[in-house]
Design a protein that fits this description.
The protein is an alpha/beta fold. It has helices at 19-31, 48-59, 73-83, 95-99, 101-106, 119-131, 175-182, 202-208, 219-232, 249-261, 279-288, 302-308, 315-327, 345-358, 375-382, 389-392, 411-454, 462-468, 477-480; strands at residues 2-7, 35-40, 63-67, 90-93, 112-114, 141-145, 148-151, 184-187, 237-240, 268-272, 290-298, 331-338, 362-367, 386-387, 404-405. Strands 2-1-3-4-5-6-7 form a seven-stranded mixed sheet, sandwiched between helices. The protein has a six-stranded parallel sheet with strand order 8-9-10-11-12-13. The protein has a two-stranded antiparallel sheet with strand order 14-15. The longest helix is centred in the C-terminal third of the chain and has 44 residues, at 411-454. It starts with a strand and ends in a 5-residue tail after the last helix. The structure holds cobalamin. The site of cobalamin has 43 residues, from helix 1, strand 3, strand 4, helix 4 and helix 6.
Length: 485
């Protein structure tokens, strides 16, 4: 069977080729007789409907697969509407159908949904469609039959990392544009998360399915994947998107040793919980070429961070992680959430003050998104929070602003506070970078902005891109500073 994966795209959002659908399409193409393609209109937002139909005529899929997070649902519904006349089976996958399967499958035009990992489920689904055999019994798949919702048993998390092939990024027709704008490719080889943060869907998914949710790849496979991709695609830095890159000190030591030995001279950035960062890890990371560590701090208020968001992280641990990064020469982005259940002006100020005290290279303030199926969604409603439906319908856009009125703060209050914080910290970042790195930084800033604008990125997205996607954390220097082997 021929399947095309569609990736919803929005104007004020990330332009990053999607890891999960690339995993699935690569898996189908390399391990089965089915053929998979990817259709993405991120750089064709104007006239996306006709672009989509043109691509579908070109790729001639017999099945359509759409990846869907909760904020993307309205966008996905509008895509499905465009596809209706084609009368193709449509399967949804990703966190939204995995956590709200009844609602997802009831969506008009959706034929089936996949709950959890799809590597095995999709193969069995396509096999069955091809043979015309019943879908009953395919674990992880729910489907519609004469408008009835049919529910198969769940499938455990996919354990088979060893069988994962090198991702085939060439499936992205616009890969060249992504590489030109971002200068990087995204990587993720460690799946799942063991934390219980109430604003995130990961704990709910972990509770819903059996098997081991946290699955780490061997450092050797991770480094091999980066080397392989680098030998094919000319990118300048590596973004590791694993929710907790620091698996353990031992894992990091091995990864860094192999990364250095591989001859890769690419700077990379990672994301991790502050309490996983030790001096040893920070030192190895820096020596291997890591330039930037992204830390989820969430709030300066202990009450918000630990009682509401259940981050289980003290102020001391945060300060220590930032201090370690700085002393080892790693830049730090700290992520904060504003406007969650129970937030007040005083707790927002605590976040702002903490960001200043820590002297983060970048402090990035997001507004709280009430994702159905998470614990904080229930917390919010039980504390008198009100979701503004109109704004929620547009919340796939990162820049949408706040979506929730709480008894102590209106969505507008939170939005204004966020805007002030982001303005201040981005300006500070631009000025400091300019001071530290001088003209080369200015040239990179101008080049990044020009490339982004020429390729249809919205001007209002640029400041977000400057702090998340601009290659500003010490390009090839990693190579020169590498310790002798
Ligand atoms: C890395 C990441 C990102 C990266 C993505 C990088 C990239 N290029 O792909 C960045 C930072 C860009 C990002 C952005 C966003 N993210 Co994010 N992200 C994650 C994270 C940490 C890992 C996701 C991942 O890639 N895992 C590895 C892949 C292989 O696994 P997977 O995603 O589970 O995919 C499997 C199944 O879901 C399924 N599947 C997935 N798609 C499809 C499609 C079909 C057709 C089928 C059949 C199956 C299927 O099969 C896959 C393979 O087994 C998760 C949290 C977590 N701990 O998992 C959040 C998470 C997925 N993100 C989330 C959100 C909300 C977003 C944003 C909407 C935020 C925003 N407002 O902009 C954007 C949307 C971007 C987009 N286009 O989807 C939420 C989704 C919650 C929900 N219930 O919907 C999560 C769960 C975090 C959270 N807060 O709860 N994200």
């Amino acid at each position: 069977m021929r399947i095309s994966f569609l990736v919803p795209a929005a104007p004020h959002s990330f332009r990053d080729p999607h890891i999960a659908v690339t995993c699935l399409a690569t898996h189908l193409n390399s391990h089965t007789h089915h053929t998979a393609s990817i259709i993405d209109y991120a750089f064709h937002l104007k006239g996306w409907k006709s672009f989509l139909l043109r691509k579908i005529r070109q790729k001639r899929p017999e099945v359509i697969g759409i990846t869907c997070t909760s904020p993307h649902l309205p966008l996905v519904i509008s895509i499905i509407k465009e596809l209706q006349p084609l009368n193709l089976p449509i399967i949804l996958g990703g966190y939204y159908p995995s956590l709200l399967p009844e609602e997802a499958l009831s969506t008009e035009g959706v034929s089936a949904i996949c709950i959890g990992d799809a590597e095995e489920t999709l193969v069995e689904y396509l096999d069955a469609l091809e043979k015309g055999s019943p879908l009953k019994g395919i674990k992880g798949l729910w489907y519609k039959k004469e408008n009835l919702l049919c529910k198969n048993p769940s499938r455990p998390f996919y354990p088979g990392f060893e069988s994962l092939s090198h991702l085939d990024w060439s499936l992205w027709d616009d890969l060249g544009t992504y590489l030109k704008v971002n200068n990087s490719l995204p990587f993720l080889r460690n799946r799942g998360c063991a934390s219980n943060c109430t604003f995130c869907s990961a704990p709910s998914l972990r509770a819903r399915l059996c098997g081991s949710y946290v699955r780490n790849s061997a450092p050797k496979d991770y480094v091999e994947e980066i080397s392989y991709q680098h030998s094919r695609h000319n990118f300048r830095y590596v973004i590791c998107h694993d929710p907790n890159f620091i698996v353990s000190d031992l894992w990091i030591e091995e990864f860094c040793r192999l990364y250095s030995r591989s001859g890769l001279s690419l700077p990379f950035s990672i994301e991790t919980r502050p309490d996983t960062l030790t001096r040893k890890a920070a030192r190895s990371l820096r020596a291997a070429g890591c330039r930037l560590v992204r830390l989820g701090i969430e709030s300066g208020s202990d009450h918000m961070r630990n009682t509401i968001y259940q981050k289980n992280l003290s102020r001391k641990q945060i300060a220590e992680a930032v201090r370690l990064c700085k002393s080892e020469g790693l830049s730090v982005i700290g992520y904060f959430i504003l406007g969650g259940p129970g937030e007040t002006r005083a707790t927002m100020l605590e976040s702002y003050n903490l960001a200043r005290e820590l002297r983060l290279d970048i402090a990035s303030f997001a507004t709280y998104k009430p994702i159905p199926g998470t614990k904080s969604y229930t917390q919010l409603l039980s504390r008198g929070g009100k979701i503004l439906e109109k704004r929620w319908a547009d919340s796939f856009n990162v820049l949408t602003g706040s979506l929730v009125d709480t008894p102590k703060l209106s969505a507008e209050d939170v939005k204004q506070f966020q805007a002030r914080c982001n303005r201040e910290f981005r300006l500070r970042y631009l000025l400091t970078s300019l001071k530290k790195r001088g003209l080369p930084f200015l040239f990179r800033l101008i080049a990044y902005s020009a490339k982004a604008l020429l390729n249809g990125v919205e001007p209002s997205w640029l400041p977000f891109g400057w702090v998340t996607q601009l290659d500003n954390f010490g390009p090839a220097r990693a190579c020169q500073e590498r310790p002798a082997q």
